[in-house]
Amino acid sequence: MTQSSAVTAQNDSNMIPATDLVTVSRAVADLRRGEIVLVQGHDNGEAHSVAVIAAEPLSQHGLERLCDITGNEKTAPAIVLPRVRAKSLGQAAKDDPFVAFVSATPSGVDADRLGEIANPLLDLDALPDGDWRQISMAEHAAIRLAKLARLLPAVVTVPVSADQLETLARSQNLLVLQSESINGYENASAASLRQVSEARVPLEDAENVTVIAFRPEDGGQEHLAIVIDEPAKDKPVLIRLHSECFTGDLIGSLRCDCGPQLRGAISEIAKSGQGGIVLYLRQEGRGIGLVNKLRAYALQDRGFDTLDANEELGFDADERVYRPAAEMLRQLGFESVRLLTNNPEKLTGLESWGVTVSERVPHKFPSNGHNEFYLQTKKERAGHLF
To answer: Considering the domain boundaries, does residue 311 fall inside one?
Structure first.
């Protein structure tokens, strides 16, 4: 990373104030508990606000409270859904990645019904009478917040007037978030990473190892740098970016190649005699989280491939971000890397944050009888270089 890139990375940490980082983090926790949050966005220069509950943990009490505090007891709330889910429910495909459904009557959408509508693993016979509409920027940001919470990307919303916003926040003790804060959260959180702990941890295939933990300022999940031997800082360092995989890394799942890739990277770096780093990034399931990855597996058992399964749930094929890795390397003092990967997006992802990738080092392992289709999909659809 050049000096100017490093300065830019440091300055970018101020794009969202630390208080906003904490607010977004608190809102993520609220959403996971089925609590209400308030989100404000701007459409064509005009502010629009919504009160939001995530569809996945929605209870009847939460739904009634959402409508009651906003004065919308006689109007059905909207449920914002991925386009692919809307299409499966009979809505013609549109360009927008998310659309909203509003029942004609409040009685047509209790909490259980909304949960069924949001769940892509359920086949529904019919929707209640209602209409589809485009969603606002505030609702787009609310979907982003649900993704950050590792919930299904589906939310229930009711409109909130400008006069209501501050009153509701105070009287109901609700968090108010700007769409810009939500959309910029991941980059700002990565820029705030700081080393918080390190220890020597001898490994089976590499005895001279130091594990360094990095934590963002909002107290979110730690990323880990597994530093093997003592890599030189005056030449490209051999590294592997490894996204957390509970099933593959810990319990030996044969559905993916993650376990062999992790242990193989540690072994190869140790054998190189020059040292290197495995960056263990907390981005399970290509960034969708463990629970959603298990849902994706269930869809794969129905015939979807690994990319389509993510998209059927409402996620991008790959939701990972690469700024955490770049920031960790910067703080460790490495500007140029040799990257163990078959995924060209990792090269461009690191380089977009100022890290020079001097070489791609192939990193492939044989299939095991259970993951041939998975590996074939990565090659043919994701462009992995096997």
So the answer is: no
Catalytic residue among 83, 85, 320, 323: 320
- Closest to 240 measured CA to CA, from 190, 206, 291: 206
Rounded Cα–Cα distance for residues 142 and 220 (Å): 19
- Are 230 and 175 members of one domain? no
Q: Are 220 and 230 in contact (CB under 8 A)?
A: no
Does a structural domain hold residue 296?
A: no
Give the strand order in the sheet containing 176-178: 130-133, 98-103, 78-82, 155-160, 46-54, 37-43, 176-178
Which two structure tokens, joined as six digits, stand for 138?
């505030």
The domain boundary, picked from 134, 162, 183, lies at 183
Q: Which of 318, 330, 338, 360 is catalytic?
A: 318
170-215 residue pLDDT tens: 999 999 999 999 999 999 999 999 999 999 999 999 999 999 999 9
The whole-angstrom distance between residue 205's C-alpha and the CA centroid of its chain comes to 31
Q: Which of 133, 113, 29, 111 is nearest to 37 (CA)?
A: 29
pLDDT tens figures, 262-276: 999 999 999 999 999
| Annotation says 320 is catalytic | yes
Residue 360 annotated as catalytic: no
**Whole-number Cα distances in Å, 312 to 48, 82, 83, 297, 384:** 28, 8, 9, 11, 21
Residues 160 and 201 reside in one and the same domain? no
Q: Is residue 131 part of a domain?
A: yes
